[in-house]
Design goal:
single chain; 200 residues; alpha+beta; 60s Ribosomal Protein L30, Chain: A; 4 helices
């Protein structure tokens, strides 16, 4: 008799536990089947033409967001480079920076004055870097430096259509040393005065 009561009690307990497990959970968000949206693919940045090792990156095509319009390359055809005229006005940059320093104000003023004195002349700005970093990174940094100098000249009255920019990255060092003194000389923007050939 006692055994029957015990079996009966166990059976009731089991039934109650089973009934409790049958309840649906509360506050559960139901998932509705539907089409799965495709993944968003991010494309790597497209490299400009001529960015292979050892090549020069022309920077006349300004990157998005640059306020100053580009100077068409064909307007510089037939011009001769005068590398010595503005050689003493080279602008230098801090490590890993394209910000034009306040100390370059007099150099920029001298370059602007040279262009003002000769209405037929134009200007080429060469952006350069020290040897540290990859070729691609330094070409991009040289580009930003050249464009920053072009913008700084525009702010003091130089017509940007008279200015062309180019980046040599680390391929054209002013000093071939491998120390901070050499690197400081190589982080620079060179100004090349351009004169038209006769009849241009």
């Amino acid at each position: 008799m006692k055994t029957m009561k015990m079996i009966y009690a166990v059976a009731i307990a089991f039934a109650l536990v089973a009934a409790g497990c049958a309840h649906k959970p509360v506050n559960v968000t139901q998932l509705h089947p539907g089409p799965v949206p495709p993944p968003i693919e991010t494309q790597p940045p497209t490299m400009s033409a001529g960015t292979t090792t050892g090549t020069v990156l022309p920077t006349d095509l300004n990157p998005p967001g640059t306020a100053i319009p580009s100077a068409p390359p064909e307007t510089f055809e037939g011009y001769l480079e005068d590398t010595s005229a503005l050689a003493s006005y080279t602008a230098h940059f801090k490590y890993d920076s394209a910000a034009v320093q306040k100390t370059e104000k007099s150099n920029l003023a001298a370059v602007a004055a040279a262009l003002s004195a000769d209405a037929s002349a134009k200007l080429l700005i060469e952006g350069n870097c020290d040897e540290r970093g990859t070729d691609e990174y330094n070409r991009a940094l040289g580009e930003r430096r050249a464009l920053a100098l072009r913008e700084a000249l525009a702010k003091i009255g130089v017509d940007p259509s008279r200015v062309r920019t180019i980046s040599y990255g680390k391929d054209k060092p002013a000093d071939t040393g491998h120390d901070e003194a050499a690197w400081a000389k190589n982080r620079r923007g060179d100004f090349i005065l351009l004169h038209p050939k006769s009849g241009v």
